[in-house]
Design brief:
Blueprint (H helix, E strand, L loop, with lengths): L1 E7 L2 E7 L5 H8 L18 E4 L2 E4 L12 E3 L12 H9 L8 H14 L5 H7 L11 H16 L12 H11 L8
Parallel strand pairs: 1-5
Antiparallel strand pairs: 1-2, 3-4, 3-5
This protein binds FE2/S2 (inorganic) cluster (2 copies).
One FE2/S2 (inorganic) cluster binds next to loops.
């Protein structure tokens, strides 16, 4: 075992890891951050996507050793005390999710895109999400969600967190878009 230090969702974190351990395993099993999913575990589905120094990466294909001293952002890091992040709100309002298993990965890939581009074209959105697979939605509403998130980003240059209006029907979607329902947790 070896100890590494890193930033996870803005907090300095020290964690003991095995040399061959994936970032996905560390996030889920050692830090309890199960919003980051483990689907294929072989770099083929995108459900494990997180941001590493602002870029989207597959956490299943990233050795924990590689992230020492670096900045990791997971789905749990988007929401704050004011409510859902705008990108999460966009997925809820546009219906960009059904079962929700793939959703944290899509949200993080889209978030990485919008960090670098305020007004991506549909082609750029599709390219950014090409590494993410959804078995439920058919992708149309996911694309619409990212376009809506881009609009929110442009409206507010600070891209501040929005307070979610919690209707009873939105609650289950909120659980899925934040993974508070712990979907796929072992
Ligand atoms: S679990 Fe990482 S790409 Fe599928
Ligand atoms: S919403 Fe079910 S896999 Fe995408």
């Amino acid at each position: 075992m070896e100890q590494i230090s890193l930033s996870v969702n803005g907090r300095s974190t020290a964690v003991e890891i095995e040399p061959n351990e994936s970032l996905n395993h560390v996030l889920r099993e050692r830090l309890g951050l199960t919003g980051t999913k483990r689907g294929c575990d072989t770099g083929g589905c995108g459900s494990c996507t997180v941001l590493l120094d602002g870029k989207a990466v597959y956490s299943c294909m990233t050795y924990a050793m590689q992230v020492a001293g670096r900045d990791v952002l997971t789905i749990e890091g988007l929401q704050d005390e004011a409510g859902l992040a705008p990108i999460q709100r966009a997925f809820v309002e546009k219906g960009g999710l059904q079962c929700g298993f793939c959703t944290p990965g899509f949200v993080m890939s889209a978030y990485a895109l919008l960090l670098s581009k305020s007004n991506p074209s549909e082609g750029e959105i599709k390219d950014a999400l090409a590494g993410n697979i959804c078995r439920c939605t058919g992708y149309v509403k996911i694309i619409e969600s990212v376009k809506a998130a881009a609009e929110l980003r442009r409206e507010d240059s600070r891209w501040t967190r929005a307070i979610e209006h919690r209707s009873s029907t939105a609650l289950s979607k909120i659980e899925r878009v934040t993974d508070s329902a712990k979907l796929g947790a072992p």
